[in-house]
């Protein structure tokens, strides 16, 4: 017995995301660069 799957196409909802970057550590520069890259792609 085969089952038929019905897929309803919907417009994806927008999601707001906060980006935390920086901080006091030896990885600070990497954190800042990562944060800048994310905001450039999705901003």
Low-confidence parts: none
Number of helices: 1
Which strand-content bin applies to the residues? Answer: under 5%
Give the structural class: mainly alpha
The largest pleated sheet is described as: none
Radius of gyration: 19 Å
Q: Helicity, in percent?
A: 25-40%
**Which descriptor suits the 3D outline?**
elongated
Oligomer: single chain
In round numbers, the mean pLDDT is 78
Q: What's the total number of strands?
A: 0
Distance N to C terminus: 48 Å
Element string (H = helix, E = strand): H
Tags for this model:
mainly alpha, 43 residues, 0% strand, elongated, single chain, 35% helix
Can you put this structure into words, describing what you see?
This protein has one helix and no strands. The chain is mostly helical. It has a domain of 28 residues. The longest helix is centred in the C-terminal third of the chain and has 15 residues. It is elongated, with a radius of gyration of 19 Å. The model has no long low-confidence stretch (mean pLDDT 78).
């Amino acid at each position: 017995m085969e089952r038929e799957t019905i897929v309803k196409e919907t417009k994806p909802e927008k999601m707001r995301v906060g980006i935390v970057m920086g901080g006091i550590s030896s990885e600070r520069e990497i954190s800042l660069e990562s944060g800048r890259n994310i905001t450039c792609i999705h901003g």
